Amino acid sequence: MSGLGFRLAAVQSAIADAAADAGREASEITTIVVTKFQPASLVADLAALGVRDVGENRHQEAQAKAAELADLDLRWHFVGQLQSKKARQVRAYASAIHSIDRPALVDVLRSEETLVDCFVQVNLTDDPGRGGVAPAELDALVEHVLETPGLRLRGLMAVAPLDEPARPAFARVRGLSERIVRLAPDATALSMGMSHDFRDAILEGATHLRIGTAITGNRPAAG
Fold this sequence. Notes:
Elements (H helix, E strand, L loop, with lengths): L2 H19 L8 E5 L5 H9 L4 E4 L2 H10 L6 E4 L5 H10 L2 E5 L2 H7 L6 E7 L15 H10 L3 E8 L7 H15 L8 E3 L6 H6 L4 E4 L1 H4 L7
């Protein structure tokens, strides 16, 4: 088995262990392998190992890889902050957009023809530059998504703050999720947990993990 295969298997084992500790089934958790800065050849290797969900956070890189690997039947997840002017281009290849954070972005993504899955990103810090909607503005943004054709709200996305333990932060997201489910009963998904904190995320109910270097290895320098 390759180094990539070993790392993937190790993460899958750790996910299964965390799910068992949480009284959950590992099968209910989707692992999105984030391949930022990695070559398309590594994504192809992941596909050969059975990976189908791939995450990117830069539009140009994601668009190029999605086009090059179009025959591999991958599900591309856009997980980075999204500029409104690039939103419709991202919509063309993404199966899901995890970073809905403002009404203007929702408006640009509107479509009468096609449906895309989306997650509303919640900012767990006081820094607006971190991306995400403030919790106080969450309900209004969720309602706007629900009213907009072409968007299927799956749930919430969040990144744990760097200056506090991850699990309490993820617990706050779970609490916010319970709030929005009253507005959108089907929007139960939680996109949270990365290479260093996915166990805590699973224990707090994560359904979608965004894992990069723990599987792919160190990233090459940005081009």
